[in-house]
Structure formats: C-alpha cells, structure tokens
Amino acid sequence: TGSIDAKCVTKSYNGRIALDSISFRVEPGQFYAVVGPSGCGKTTLLKIVHGLVRASSGEVHVNGLPVAEPCRSRAVVFQGDSLMPWRSVLDNIGFGLEMGGLKREQARAKARRYLELVELEDVAHYQPHQLSGGMRQRVNLARALAVEPEVLLMDEPFAALDAQTREVMQEELLRIWHQRSQTVMFVTHQIDEAVLLADRILVLGSRPGRVIRVVDVDLPRPRD
Ligand code: ADP
Ligand code: ADP
Predict the structure, then answer these.
(1) Which amino acid residue places its CA nearest to atom 20 of ligand 2?
(2) What are the entry keywords (predicted)?
(3) Which atom of ligand 1 is nearest to the CA of 46?
C-alpha cells in the first residue's frame, strides 16, 4: 500500500501559477524525490499531497482515495524541528499516538519501539534541547513513522544539518526505508541528495512549476 497518483495538479496563489498541471505516480514502497530550484513549487506539491493545501484544479489520490485534508495515513517531516520543547523525547512521540486514540501505556510502548528504530532509546527521557540537531531530526522521523502512515512525506528534512550529520541521517533514512518498504516522497533542492536516496526523481522547473523530466535511478546505492 501507499501509492500516490497526481493528475493535472495546478495551483495558483493570487493568480500566480506555482504548479502547472503536474501529473505523476508514486508506486507503493517507492522512494520518490522531487527536486528543482527554490520557488519551483516543491513544498506546495508536498502540501497538496498531504492535504494541507488544496489544488486549484486536478486531483491527488493516495492509495486510491482522494486527498481531502491532512490525515494520519500521511505523515510529514519538515525542515528544522517541530518537537514540543516541554515534553520528553518519548512523550513527543507518545502524545500524537494518544491523540490518535491509543491508551497512555500503549502509546509509550509504541513510542519506545520507534525510538529504538532510530537508535535513540537511551535518550527517551531527555528534553529536545538536550539533543543535537541530527538527533532531533531523528525524533521527528520516529514520530512520523510511529503513526504508521501509508506515505511518509519529507520536506528538506536535513537542510538545516551540517554536512556530516546530514550524511549520517541520509544513511539512517535509507536503512529504515529499506527495512520497512515505506513509500517516501522526499523534497529537496539538492540533486545529489535526490540521486543518493531516490528510486525515481521528479524534476521540476521554475516559471511556472512544470515537470522537466522524470529520472529513474538504478545505480548501486549504499544500501545494496
Ligand atoms: P519551493 O518549495 O520549490 O521553494 P514553494 O512551493 O514554496 O516552492 O513555492 C512556489 C511558489 O509559490 C513560490 O513563488 C512561492 O513564493 C509561492 N507561494 C508558496 N506558498 C505561498 C503562499 N502561501 N501564498 C502565496 N504564494 C505562495
Ligand atoms: P521552501 O523551504 O520550500 O522554499 P519557503 O521558505 O519558500 O519554503 O516557504 C515557507 C512558507 O511560506 C511556506 O509555508 C509557503 O507556503 C509560504 N510562502 C512561500 N512563499 C510565499 C508567498 N509569496 N506568500 C505567502 N506565503 C508564502
């Protein structure tokens, strides 16, 4: 599960076109990157797939169902961090699960499992400010994965990290993706990052946002 189908998605803001009739399909389990220069509409496209922004025309289906509004079958990791500073790492993950209907103890147990997945079980009781930027972004990833979404959406998740941490995080993400066969749609303006991570790359151009090409990557990658 976890396909994404976009048909003729157009978005304009105050009459200015940000996306011009974009169509694509993401296969279940695919790691799909969207690249292009700043302002070409990458974030807008991701937000439309998430349901945070409505397309001016065209449609998006996730797993065959039309996207209407944000929903737990789609989780997002944004650039920078969106952790609640007053909660522990464990509770940052557990809180969303409780909101989703799990009982406190179940939520905490599940949060713990996902912290193990990102190898942060030792800092479960730390506050976010006690962690490095890379660790915080791992917590964001664990929190997104813990809701067990059909698709994981990522918007320049590593952009704020230093080069070395970024590399570690890229490997970490590949390891997890490989292990879970999770559909990922990953937005970046860095071609090298897209090539390193993705199976398929949608290249957008600017003025206005249009598909320039779709590239399949089939070079040996670190996980192979
Ligand atoms: P990217 O993620 O590729 O940098 P964005 O999707 O953020 O591109 O933006 C695409 C275009 O749409 C840009 O010209 C941007 O200024 C414009 N835009 C994005 N969000 C809004 C908004 N909420 N209101 C008006 N214009 C917007
Ligand atoms: P990105 O990191 O993708 O380049 P931006 O920094 O361009 O994103 O945009 C950050 C936020 O500001 C987004 O939520 C976007 O929708 C909004 N935004 C971008 N451009 C405009 C604009 N021209 N008018 C209003 N909001 C905008």
Answers:
(1) 39
(2) ATP-binding, Nucleotide-binding, Transport
(3) 6
- Indicate whether residue 38 lines ligand 2 (CB < 6 A): yes
Closest residue by Cα to residue 196 from 140, 150, 158, 146: 158
pLDDT the model gives residue 151: 95
Residue 93 CB partners (closer than 8 Å, separation 6+): 110, 111, 114, 115, 139, 142, 143, 146
How far is C-alpha 155 from the chain's CA centre?
Answer: 6
Specify the residue with its C-alpha closest to ligand 1, atom 26. Answer: 13
Is 222 a residue whose pLDDT tops 80? no
Burial 109-123 (b: 16+ CB within 10 A, else e): ebbbebbebbebeeb
Query: Would you state the pLDDT for residue 220?
Result: 62
Looking at ligand 2, which residue's alpha carbon is closest to its atom 8? Answer: 43
Up-side HSE of residue 61: CA atoms within 13 Å toward CB?
Answer: 10
| 188 C-beta closer than 6 A to ligand 2 | no
DSSP string covering 6-19: EEEEEEEETTEEEE
The pLDDT value given to residue 219: 62
Beta bridge partners of 19: 11
pLDDT in tens, 142-167: 999 999 999 999 999 999 889 999 99
